[in-house]
Amino acid sequence: MAEWFLFLPQLRLPIADIADRARHAEASGFDGIAFIDHLEAPGLPGESIWEAMTVATWVAAATERLRIGHLVLCDAFRHPAVLAKQAVTLSAASNGRFELGLGSGSWPAEFARFDVGQQDPVARVEQLGRHLELITQYWGRGEDPDRSQQPRPEYPIPLVLGGTGRRTMKLVRQYADWWNVPANHIDRLPQLAPDASPARISVQQMVGFVRQGADPAAVRDVSTRRFGYLGSGLICGDAGELVGHFTGLTALGVERFYVWFADFAAPESLHEFGESVIRGF
C-alpha cells in the first residue's frame, strides 16, 4: 500500500499556519509531512523561511500520528554528532515518528552567502558519505562502542536520501531505507530505480489539484505559471486523473508519494485530496 506525505516548504507561512496544515493533513489521511532545509529560500533570498529541525519539532508536538521528516536536510549545516543527537531526541519525543532525510545540498548560493559548506559538489557528496558512516556509528550500529552516543535510538530512525547522481546512488544503496526522487528528476525514475535497491522508492510530486467545481483550465494555468519549470514533476488533474497517474508510478516501484500542492496546501485541497485520491487509490 502506498504511503502519502505532504511536502510543505516552510516559507511564506507563519509557524502557526504550518502546524495547522499539518493537523489538516493528519485528519485527511496523510501518513506524514516533510519540510525543506535552507538558510535562504531558493531563488528568493528576501523571502522568510523557518529553520527545518525546529519546525519539525513544533509540528511533531502539534500532531499525534504523522511521521515527520525533510526532503532533505543539508548535510553541511550540522555537525554529524549534533545531527545524530537531534534525530534521536526528536524520535524519542515523537514516539518514533521522526525520519532523517539527508542530502549533500542543492543550493550552492547559500553556501557562499553564509560561508558554510563546500562549493564543489563532488566534495559535498564525499562528505555526506563520511557523515552517514559517523551517524550510524553514533546510533550504535557500528563496531566501535566508543563512537556510540547515549541514549541510543529507542525507535528505528529511517534514513531517507535524496538525489540522483552516481555517487549519491552509491550511498543510497549502502545506507538508505528510502531513496527519494526530486520532482524535477521524475523522468529519470525508470532508468535509476534498479540502482536504488535495497532502498524503497519515493517521489516528490507537484500537483495542480482540480477540486470539484473548479475550472480545470484555470488550475492548470496557475500551476504551470508557478511550477512549470518542474517539467514532468508537475501533474495537473482531477481526482480520477491523479489516481491514474500515481498508479502508474507504483508500477515503477514507487511506494511513497511526497505531494507538493501548487496551491500551497490549502486545507480544502488537503481534505478533498484525502477523500478522493488517498482513499480512492
Which secondary structure elements does this structure contain, and how are they paired or packed?
Layout: E1 3-7, H1 15-27, E2 32-35, H2 52-62, E3 67-70, E4 73-74, H3 80-93, E5 100-103, H4 108-114, H5 121-138, E6 159-162, H6 166-175, E7 178-181, H7 189-192, E8 200-209, H8 216-227, E9 234-237, H9 239-250, E10 254-261, H10 267-278
Parallel strand pairs: 1-2, 1-10, 2-3, 4-5, 5-6, 6-7, 7-8, 8-9, 8-10
Helix pairs in contact: 1-2, 1-10, 3-5, 5-6, 9-10
Report on the structure:
The radius of gyration is 18 Å and the shape is globular. The mean pLDDT is 96. The chain is α/β, with parallel strands linked by helices and 281 residues long. Helices cover 40% and strands 17% of the residues. The chain contains ten helices and ten strands. The chain has helices at residues 15-27, 52-62, 80-93, 108-114, 121-138, 166-175, 189-192, 216-227, 239-250, 267-278, and strands at 3-7, 32-35, 67-70, 73-74, 100-103, 159-162, 178-181, 200-209, 234-237, 254-261. The chain has a single domain (3-280), classed as Luciferase-like domain (TIM Barrel, Alpha-Beta Barrel), CATH 3.20.20. Strand 2, helix 2 (52-62) and strand 3 (67-70) form a beta-alpha-beta unit. Helix 1 packs across helix 2. GO terms for molecular function: alkanesulfonate monooxygenase activity. Residues 14-187 form the Luciferase-like domain. It holds the Pfam family Bac_luciferase. Keywords: Flavoprotein, FMN, Monooxygenase, Oxidoreductase. InterPro entries: Luciferase-like_dom (IPR011251), Luciferase-like_sf (IPR036661), SsuD_RutA_monooxygenase (IPR050172).
